Amino acid sequence: MMLLRRAASAAALLVTVLPLSVASPAHASPAHAAADGAAACRPPASVPLDAEQTRLADPRATALVERAGFGDFVRRFPAALCTTRSRAEAERLLDSWGQALWQASVRRAQSQRPGGDLAPGDDRPLYWARLGMTAALARWQPEFPADKAALRARLEDASRGLTDNAFRTAPGVRRIFISGFDPFGLDAEIRRANPSGSAALQLNGRRLTLADGTQAEIRAVVLPVRYADFDAGIVERAFTPHLAAGPASADIITTVSQGYPGIFTLEDWAGRARSADPYPDNARALSGGTRERPVTAPGLGPGPEFIRTTLPADAVTAAVQTPYPVLLNSDVTEIPAGATAPVDRTDGPTPGSRAVAGGGGGYLSNEVAYRSNRLRAELAPHLPGGHLHTPVLTGLPADPQLLTGPEFERNESAITAEVRAVLEHAAVRR
């Protein structure tokens, strides 16, 4: 399993779905938006885009948006921005458009919205459409003072499901909250998808029949592969409402990410440290931590060096093994008490050791598990929680201009189906 972990690290809208209330009623239509835009905006700024946004120059990024029917989100967004006259209007617009993109992506993933010729479950159009909108936001020059970073955070949160994930209240229905991730490793292969993000879109809002015959509802978010967003608390913003007591609370949580070739793993331990350098995030940023010198994320709240899963691993691994094996991974890397060098272990951490890597490594897969379960231990220690790694999504055609293919689409569907099967056994009341 250690070798697998290191190998995985090395591999390291149509008009009808666009928001109808993105501006005041007097200029909500596309025609009015375009007309008012000239008066409400200065010419777009020639600003440098960030490392993630620069990948939009690859025409395949645009093709993924267009082939899902999401092109109007990107094309119409600049004019919509220019209809706003104040910070409050801009905030409402960003919330509205972000939620519309999220809702359209969920509906498309669940075959409820036609459009384009990509497979419905493909998570890449959401990623690239959102990125195109953030690039437009960066170039926007309003006639009033605007905090672009705060506005982008609103768009990011809304388009990732953070503002639209309330459970429908129904007596006796279990509530499952999960997170997935954006595609990553795009400098090596810009066509990459992330099966955890695909699963989140396909399962969000779905009702399941659990292994014991009871019902459950899933709510999901898709998180960025960026250290800065984790530093800014996006995991805590996503999970806290579902761990605090009240009608939004979940009965079980699990984070999901892409892991190892050919297998699912339930990660037994999440470590407190970042140690993935020299592998960057999607913004080409490094964590600052290495295997020899792990670091703790800025602003991370107090907690132990390692947190153990409370998901029912035995029940899951006994029941779900096809088409991919599901294994419990107890690997960790630690610096033992009194020592200075890292040690790999296959049986969990030893008392007093310092975390270097959990079963999910020292990257954001491990960190999302640690952050969410640190909160769980603080706010709802009785809840089951943990982390699930999916198999690596393979099957892209050899021709780099082909964006999808039958094998790729079959594998994506199979992974989501098995994530669902895992949840059907993990969420049974015990």
TrEMBL record:
Keywords: Signal. Residues 1-28 form the signal peptide. The lineage of its organism: Bacteria, Bacillati, Actinomycetota, Actinomycetes, Kitasatosporales. Transmembrane segments: none annotated. The keyword Signal applies. It comes from Streptomyces erythrochromogenes. Residues 276-306, 338-361 are annotated as: Disordered. InterPro entries: Peptidase_C15-like_sf (IPR036440). This is Pyroglutamyl peptidase.
